Amino acid sequence: MVWGLGPLAFGWLVLDVSRAAPGGQLGIRAIAAETLIFAAWSGGLVAVIRLRPTYLVYVRVASGSAAAWGGAGVAGGFEAGAITLGWGLITLILSFSPQVTIEAAARDSAPRERRFPLALPAGLLVFMVVPSALVAGTGIGFIPAWLLGARPTGPRLLLTVIALVASPVIVVSLSRLARRWLVVVPSGIVLHDPMLLAETYRLTPDEIAWVEFAPEKWRRVAIGEKVADATAGCATRPLIIVLGKPMPGPMLRPRRSNGSGVVDMIACRPVNRTDALATLRSAGYERPSVEEGAVNG
Fold first, then answer.
1. What is the C-alpha separation between 148 and 26, in angstroms, rounded?
2. Which segments of 118-238 are extended strands (E)?
3. pLDDT of residue 152
4. pLDDT (tens digit, 9 = 90+) per residue, 54-74?
5. Hey, is 35 helix, strand or coil?
6. 116 CB contacts (<8 Å, ≥6 apart)?
């Protein structure tokens, strides 16, 4: 519903910018810019309805573009820019919300599997990921802005050039962030994290003892234990996958570390960790009770 209000938000700004041009209009350039903007919004409408991780990246960058150039409109003295800025920020925040992230992962799941998106630290999300979406949006939205008469100078020009150069790299990184999952399949558990892991990490049911919530202050406890930390630095309690025997841990991406070595447990932090734990327990990865352990012994 919020995305559907887009033409009202940025249409007003485009109209004001066109009227402010010499002669009261920009002619064919304004028509070209409006066509590009409407096409981008239409693509986002399809992405919002279908909602897959890749489409979600498109929505995030497009929202960042609206927010960035809406802010530029405000700086240029166009009151309508505030509406575009507000709409872009709202859609950007919604696109990073847990509910939307969970829904996108669920819709991308194959039959007989459950995908649980992995959480990001709040500081990384607020101070790096969301600003990166704004930077990428600035670069991608430059062409229609230029057609509408935007001519950055001085520091603004430098920032625009940086955004243009950085946009492809940022889009690739956002795509990686959207494909971080804990996957529960009939053949075991899969950690898919192209941001943190060098390759997908798989565990069969025979290799898993049980899964549970990590104890309070688990990182202090983990110092003396062989625990692979795949939480990306999240401060809240993760899930702990306890292995049936010591095994080689997941290999981290180059330039991060040399890997986890042999580990007894793996920590990961799904966004919807309670639902993930319930699914894992129903799949048979529940911690044996004392009575069961005594009988098995």
1. 7
2. 181-185, 188-192, 201-203, 208-213, 227-229
3. 82
4. 999 999 999 999 999 999 999
5. helix
6. 102, 105, 181, 182, 183, 184, 270, 271, 272, 273, 275, 276, 279
User: Alpha helices, DSSP H only, in 186-288?
Assistant: 218-222, 273-282
CA dihedral (283, 288, 291, 292) positive or negative: positive
Which two tokens mark 49? 């309805």
CA distance 91 to 68: 13
Going by the DSSP 8-state scheme, the letter that residue 286 receives in this structure is P
* 157: number of Cβ within 10 Å: 11
Cα distances (angstroms) measured from residue 185 to each of 136, 198, 244: 35, 21, 18
CA-based angle 67:73:79, to the nearest 5?
105
Strand order in the sheet with 181-185: 114-117, 181-185, 188-192, 201-203
> What letter represents residue 166's amino acid?
A
Instruction: From residue 61, give the alpha-carbon distance in Å to each of 12, 132, 149, 181.
Output: 21, 9, 22, 21
pLDDT of 293 reads 47
C-alpha 165/C-alpha 143 separation (Å) is 14
DSSP code for 217: T
Pick the closest to residue 247 from 288, 194, 206, 196 (CA basis): 206
**Pick from 63, 61, 84, 62: nearest CA to 72:** 84
Residue 295 has pLDDT above 50, yes or no: no
Residue 140's contacts (CB-CB under 8 Å, 6 or more residues apart) are: 61, 62, 65, 167
pLDDT per residue as tens digits for the range 158-185? 988 999 999 999 999 999 999 999 999 9
Is the pLDDT at 294 greater than 50, yes or no?
no
- What are the Cα distances from residue 280, in Å, to 3, 197, 218? 35, 22, 20
The single residue listed with the structure tokens 């005594």 is: 294
In this predicted structure, the answer to whether residue 186 has a pLDDT above a threshold of 70 is yes
